[in-house]
Fold this protein.
Amino acid sequence: MKIAIVGDTHFGARNSNLTIQYWQEKFWTDVFWPYIDKHKITTIIQTGDYFDNRKWINLQTMAFQKKMFVNNLQKRNMKCYGIIGNHDIPLRYSLENNSPSQIINHEDGIEYYDKPTNIELDGVNFTLVPWICKENEEQCNDVIKKGGEVLVGHFEIDGMLMHPGHTARAELKVSDFNEWKYVISGHYHTQSQRGNINYVGTPYQMNWNDATGKNGFWILDTTDLSMDFIQNNNTFFNKIYWEDGTDYNIDRLNNSFIKLIVRKKSDFEMFEKFVDKINHQDPFELKIIESFEEYNEDNVGDMIKVIATTDLIKEYIDDVATENSKEAIKKLMLEIYDDALRMDEIDSI
């Protein structure tokens, strides 16, 4: 039996950005479903973060995921087994009110699990473990330590690659999974493997951290637990290096994100004509990054005064003409600033 393994799908990514959605649609329409039809795949396992936004999901995203995934799955009479990821939950310490349970679990052929669950497919036992949080930590850790055949999760594992150049620091260790024949995980968007653990990555790019890696999905063979990678060649995060010219192919930059990194620019007219050619391709976003090497560490220090945000707030209030107590205003503004920092910290987890 062949099973399609799909990583974090993040429907509604980047605040339901239509350019991201455009490229997500190209993956489902041009890559995934044609492969499923050709190879007669009947089962999908999805590794969590089905949705992207923890707090809200708009009508556009709900309609898009139904059109791209749910309807196509049901039209083919397929089954999808999935787990709850950290982006699927509105609460930090609980999986309660998670979005897949609210929105897609009632759909025929779809089952998303918010508790460790065993399923058997073609004689192979799969254990599906959702995002681990304070509410379910003890239960999930007991399952992990017990071991078994195939474990599917949305794990934070110490030492595994989060994105290029950055490895994770986490409580779960690689050795905690020694009792499993094979471990499949979502969560980290960069593909990586160590021993029996396989981080499957994402089916498509969603940010600049994804620009240098591979995207796509996997096919697991239950006869020997081998995994074959099916690559999605649609890339839309482009880094172009300009050094008095470039040989970068700019014919496929429509609806893409571009960073034009300038290393050397002797001929300004030639450079401006190249920028015009890029804009003619109608990219979604073009950022030009200049290299100001003359402003090195030795001479830039005297030009910049570094000051803490809290000190800026205090200085501003001191300069404002007001009859009210400036000390009381400072105290109130600093409390608001601290609250904003705490909210940002919570939202980034």
Residues 75 and 214 are 29 Å apart (CA to CA). The longest helix spans residues 18-39. The longest strand covers residues 257-264. The mean pLDDT is 91.
